[in-house]
Amino acid sequence: MSKTTRGVALVTGASSGIGLATARALRRDGYRVFGTSRKPAANTSDGVTMLVCDVTDDASVQALVEDVVSRAGRIDLLVNNAGIGLLGAAEESSTAQAKALFDVNVFGVVRLTNAVLPVMRRQRAGRIVNLSSILGLIPAPYNALYASTKHALEGYSESLDHEVRTHGIRVVLVEPGATRTSFEENLTRADHPLAAYDAVRADAEKLMREIVETGDAVEVVADTVVKAANAATPRRRYTAGKVAMQVSLMRRFLPESFVDKGLRKYNKLPLEPTPPASSTAAAHQAS
């Protein structure tokens, strides 16, 4: 297929960061690209048409898909990129906050996918690329709820792919590592912080800033999305960047105990649990 006939792409969360870089990369590759943002945004200089969509609202999602189809006649590629982060110990977030996170990161993907699938079934062709994360593969201390949304997205995407292949549709995952975006600046903080976690949470936030500052450029992820979108026989998962590849291989091939110790060391957590106060006192008396 020539670069002038790639098809029609819809990219959520395209006002900045990975979404914007992806929309631009797809446009350069020959797609007619529609991007979304929660608030009105100007069309990009690269020819990306921006539309408003709240991925947590069924009516907004349905209106978006109808608008794109009315303008372009079809949707060949859906890139589910919109998402938010949450930093804090799992215990520090209310169930309401957890639900709000899942409403964007998981159910937002479900809403867009459900709205686009009828279009792709009629076409007997389509590709859905879901932006996951290496935190969909490994534990993530002080990002437990965010990691849970990405683990959920992994299972959903792989299962859905089996369901829709007979209709000419494929679903694939792109798994970035740390990426230089404003993601850390826009993190949601836990709504019920506890003093017991203050020190380690502060260390976790510092570590996140450091890894984002030295992370991959957004173009690395965007190029991986283009690759996943155009592959004639797509893989289920595409890691984006060297660190993401290393983490994927580590999780797949190394012993669980080795991975556990490595993660605790990386996150500056003690390798052994702190003994109960009673045990400490008894040991002191015995000595």
TrEMBL record:
The chain positions of domain Ketoreductase read: 7-177
| Superkingdom of the source species | Bacteria
The residues that cross the membrane are none
Q: Which SUPFAM superfamilies match?
A: NAD(P)-binding Rossmann-fold domains (SSF51735)
MF-aspect GO terms:
oxidoreductase activity
Pfam family example for this protein?
adh_short
Show the SMART domains listed in the entry: PKS_KR
User: NCBIfam families given for it?
Assistant: PRK06179.1
Family (UniProt): Belongs to the short-chain dehydrogenases/reductases (SDR) family.
Q: What is this protein called?
A: Short-chain dehydrogenase/reductase
| Organism the protein comes from | Bradyrhizobium betae
